[in-house]
Design brief:
Layout: H1 15-23, E1 28-32, E2 35-41, E3 52-57, H2 66-90, E4 100-106, H3 114-134
Parallel strand pairs: 3-4
Antiparallel strand pairs: 1-2, 2-4
Helix pairs in contact: 2-3
């Protein structure tokens, strides 16, 4: 059951880390509607941290009501919680596990069903895995 956990060690915290994620020249992005993913290789981390840290953004411009933004954020978090184990398991056999910072930006204009968000999350994490395994 450990692979389905999503604790504090998985969250990307700090203004500098998030700012670097969106402004750095080595950041990469991909769009899998309704999610856009922005990621970059992370610098050194403390012992015991997760290999992938994430942050979720739901713009107020897209979803005006706070209730809708919270619902979208929860669905994205749940999709990541159920899917992130597959990506981390793929890197378990490698000697050098890549450390990633990931931002998920919700780009739809309405709250979509969980199934659509889960499918988009799987495609997006697959793209992230493919790009990072090639480099």
């Amino acid at each position: 059951m450990k692979k389905f956990e999503l604790g504090k060690r998985h969250k990307l915290c700090g203004v500098i880390a998030v700012d670097r994620l969106f402004t750095s020249a080595d950041s990469q992005s991909a769009l899998c509607y309704p999610l856009k993913g922005v990621w970059r290789a992370a610098s050194g981390r403390a012992e015991g941290d997760a290999p992938c840290k994430f942050v979720i953004t739901v713009p107020k411009k897209r979803l005006r009501h706070a209730v809708d933004r919270v619902a979208a954020r929860r669905r994205v978090r749940e999709a990541y919680r159920l899917t992130h184990g597959r990506v981390e398991d793929c890197h378990a056999g490698e000697a050098q596990t890549p450390l990633l910072d990931i931002a998920f930006v919700y780009v739809a204009n309405r709250v979509l069903p969980s199934a659509a968000i889960h499918a988009a999350m799987e495609r997006l994490l697959g793209k992230i895995h493919n790009v990072n395994s090639q480099t």
